[in-house]
């Protein structure tokens, strides 16, 4: 029977070898991976697109994001080779002092969004620390597919990533899973969609547009009524036209009657 002391000694001997074993396993694993996740949301593609592209609002609904800054700095040189005035670059700061530099490379409104991203340790402003290896680099491709006949859309996210550190690779492969960050994003997104904030905004905008349309119709009707009234006022009075037409006839009749009277008097004489 093995004594407790023997077990403790064995553990002390094996403990330092565990990290070495994990490191060795990580070295054997591929550094690159591809993972895809799909989720259904009961909203429109336009509303979902607005949520995805409103990066300044991410801290309000993403559980692991502390703040977002839309800017460029000295650690983004690698990503800036894709620089374009129409592309958006922003930095996500997590609550665990990690930061991810993200750039929108390709956008097709309400259909497709391609992001290139790189995760780096947080560096406080003004500090000069040598750049370390990024924990994760890769891309996220968002594909929005509206469901025909329903007010719903399928969102597919495909991650193509590279994890350079062997220890991080083995933990993701054996314990966390490569899909962990996508699953968290989709879960947080579902909560934001369920709140229906943008749905209410869309309804208010439609109501305002409808009210504006009715107002324009009323103004058009009033203008037409005013034009008809002006046209009626400018039109001559029909009674005056009739009286002016009858007056010459009466005068002619009276003249003719006087001539007949004179002729009758002459005949009598």
What's the helix-strand series? Answer: HHEHHEEEEEEHHHH
Number of strands: 7
Radius of gyration: 42 Å
Characterize the biggest β-sheet.
7 strands, antiparallel
Q: How would the global form be characterised?
A: elongated
* Major beta sheet, strand line-up: 1-7-6-5-4-3-2
Mean pLDDT: 77
Sheet-strand content, in percent, reads: 15-25%
Q: Span between N and C termini?
A: 176 Å
pLDDT < 50 runs, ≥5 residues: 73-84
Helix content: 40-55%
Give me the number of helical elements: 8
Using brief descriptors, characterize the structure shown.
alpha+beta, seven-stranded antiparallel sheet, 23% strand
Descriptive overview:
The protein is an alpha+beta fold. Helix content is 49%, strand content 23%. The protein contains eight helices and seven strands. The protein has a seven-stranded antiparallel beta sheet. A hairpin with a 6-residue loop joins β6 and β7. The radius of gyration is 42 Å and the shape is elongated. It starts with a helix and ends with a helix. About 4% of the residues have low confidence.
